[in-house]
Amino acid sequence: MTGLRAENLTLAYDRRIVVEGLTLALPAGRVTAILGPNGCGKSTLLKALARLIRPQAGRVTLDGEDIHALPTRAVARRLGLLPQAPIAPEGITVGDLVARGRAPWRGLLAGWSAADEAARAAALAATGLTDLAARPVADLSGGQRQRVWIALALAQQTEHLLLDEPTTWLDLPHQIEVLALLRRLNREQGRSIVTVLHDLSLAARFADHLVLMAAGRVLAEGTPEEVLTPGALEDAFGLRALVIADPVTGTPLVVPA
Amino acid sequence: MSRGLSLLAAALLLACLLGLAVGEVLLGPADLWRGLLTGEGPGGFTLRVLRGPRVATGALAGAALGMSGAIFQSVLRNPLAAPDVMGFTAGAGLGALAVAGFGAGAGLSVTLGAAAGGAGAAVAVALLALTREGLVPLRLVLVGIGAGFTLTALTGFAMTRLPGPEAMEAQRWLSGSLAARTWGHAGQIALTALPLALLTAALVPALALLEMGDDLAAGLGLRVQRARAGLAALGVALAAAAVAVAGPVPFIALMAGPLARGALRRAGTAGPGAVLAGAALTGATIAVLADLAARAAVPGVQLPLGVMTGILGAPCLLWLLTREMERGGL
Ligand SMILES: Nc1ncnc2c1ncn2[C@@H]1O[C@H](COP(=O)(O)OP(=O)(O)O)[C@@H](O)[C@H]1O
Ligand SMILES: [Mg+2]
């Protein structure tokens, strides 16, 4: 079994169960978007996929191996997570922040290697940040800052990349910029990308595969056309909507009724 | 070494030279130089016996406190989270007093008493502050302030049990004092604080990840809880080592980190390793200068070091408080 899979996963905080009996296969080499109302367990699922929380039942497998049977650093070399609210240390520059993505590859006393530098340079180039490397992160715009975090995750050089709401605080042009970047990374570098998104129509445009969640369960998964139906939207969000073909791309466009 | 750290090291060197030269007997540059090089002349005795051990103990204790404060400020991502604000040094003071007051004497047992008291206070504060969402830094600070008052009150009560002269001596030590320090004290803090500082240096990469939030740090392969527990234990131990030789001196641990960060940022960037080293240098400088001021402020009277750091530190605390309020951290 290749790729990232959740098998019969039950996740809880203390006693409170948030996700129950969830089974999901994330297609390798694709862009997958996870959708669903606030509080339905998207972030919790993402953390479990990244080995940050231990499931109460079931398991997460990476290429067939239970992720909790693998060492922390070994997982961090194959799977990167960009959480919803990472904190930029005070005064840090773009280049220094991106360099921290190399952590799982560096020994305790090892210096900064040529491979580290190559990975950082490639990550900066892929995100169009090479010229901004010496600038403090705090001076950048919201869209640029989000690209810095993505560059950090790229420097980690993992085949799987999980992102929690990478577009939520951005204006529309910057949302599109970030999503186009993610798709380009998928197409050009073959990375499997899983991202939580809120904008349904943008998700349909940029993702190959959609997972629609509600109340800790998967309601529907498949291509955007298969998932974004008026019935599923009503079930997941209680939203009455028309779904028409996007006049630009032909992908589903959700129009609230 | 970065330019910022070089500047802080130069400031410490200058503070130490001033601390050695100034006192009831003022040493001229020539006497000071000769005393430092040969140990002879009017400078020799002053340096060897009167001021050398005092300045060395103060610098090392200040460095340990500064590093301890910077560890907690980074780990908890809150500039108010210093071991003196959170009551850990008060706990260490009570622990040391319990050992010293019950006749066990000085040295290792006092250090162990301070470490036990500091660790006890830290664990108690952490347990009291624990919520369902884990440890919330601000809650930890507020619970710690309360615990500090309680521990200080307990210490006051314990002092009433001591005979008069010993109570006087204990009172002086409890306000933080470098009076009558010997090379034994300097050696003790060197032997305890240096290994702790080396262990802390090994955890700097972990600190760099923790700064960015638990989830990102864990995603980058860090065992977050273990790293945080290790850093907190080192922070408590460093503070306790300082308290054992200098008493629970207030505010050095709180002030050193923010001042070092300010200085380092003005001179370029500041990674967590530079901040820790800078906080140690700054803590040492504050301790030596504050002790100098305490000796020289009122002619003929030696104020305890802690009185001086209190005078310096209270405005610093207010400044940090207002800054945090403006930033919405409170
Ligand atoms: N650290 C936590 N401790 C306790 N409950 C949590 C925690 N994080 C999230 N929850 C709860 O779990 C549920 C799912 O949260 P989350 O996975 O963040 O949802 P989503 O990302 O879909 O908005 C919510 O009800 C939330 O309140
Ligand atoms: Mg979420």
TrEMBL record, chain A:
Main location, first listed in the record: membrane
GO annotation, cellular component aspect: plasma membrane
Residue ranges annotated for the ABC transporter domain, each copy included: 4-240
Cellular location(s): Cell membrane
Record CDD domains: ABC_Iron-Siderophores_B12_Hemin
Any one biological process term the GO annotation gives: iron ion transport
Superkingdom of source: Bacteria
InterPro entries with a match to the protein in the record: AAA+_ATPase (IPR003593), ABC_transporter-like_ATP-bd (IPR003439), ABC_transporter-like_CS (IPR017871), P-loop_NTPase (IPR027417), Siderophore_ABC-ATPase (IPR051535)
A single GO molecular function term of this UniProt record: ATP hydrolysis activity
UniProt membrane topology term: Peripheral membrane protein
Alphabetically ordered keywords of this record: ATP-binding, Cell membrane, Ion transport, Iron, Iron transport, Membrane, Nucleotide-binding, Transport
Assigned protein family: Belongs to the ABC transporter superfamily.
Protein name in the entry: ATP-binding cassette domain-containing protein
Organism: Frigidibacter albus
TrEMBL record, chain B:
Entry's localization field: Cell membrane
Transmembrane segments: 55-76, 88-106, 112-131, 138-159, 189-210, 231-254, 274-294, 301-321
Xref: SUPFAM superfamilies: ABC transporter involved in vitamin B12 uptake, BtuC
Domain of life assignment: Bacteria
Keyword annotations from UniProtKB, A to Z: Cell membrane, Membrane, Transmembrane, Transmembrane helix, Transport
GO cellular component: plasma membrane
Name of a matching Pfam family: FecCD
UniProt-listed Gene3D superfamilies: ABC transporter involved in vitamin B12 uptake, BtuC
InterPro entries, A to Z: ABC_BtuC-like, ABC_transptr_permease_BtuC
Membrane topology of this protein: Multi-pass membrane protein
Major localisation: membrane
One term of GO molecular function: transmembrane transporter activity
GO term, biological process aspect, one: siderophore-iron import into cell
Family: Belongs to the binding-protein-dependent transport system permease family. FecCD subfamily.
Stated name of the protein: Iron chelate uptake ABC transporter family permease subunit
